[in-house]
Design a protein that fits this description.
The protein is of the alpha+beta class. It has one domain. The chain is built from four helices and three strands. A hairpin with a 3-residue loop joins strand 2 and strand 3.
């Protein structure tokens, strides 16, 4: 993992071998993302998450933009520590 690399929630779930829905739930419980799966400012300031704008085409309304959370390298280390603590509990 290099310092400028970011990971989607789906990529992080695959790396750590847990389900995507479980990871979203864990990130909400740790107040890293909100109910809409957007990154919380505190975690952005800590360097764990960045906000990325996802663009997609809706067949009726056209181009749509949606922010999404991406984990930084530091965020992946933070997440790994949380997951390991959960396995030990």
């Amino acid at each position: 993992m290099t310092d400028d690399t970011t990971y989607t929630i789906q990529e992080a779930a695959k790396i750590y071998g847990i389900g995507v829905r479980r990871l979203f739930r864990l990130l909400r419980e740790r107040r890293a993302i909100d109910i809409n799966n957007w990154p919380i400012q505190r975690r952005i300031d800590q360097g764990y998450l960045v906000s990325d704008v996802h663009e997609w085409q809706h067949p009726v309304t056209g181009t749509q933009f949606r922010p999404r959370a991406r984990l930084t390298t530091a965020g992946m280390r933070w997440l790994g520590k949380i997951i390991r603590q959960g396995e030990a509990a």
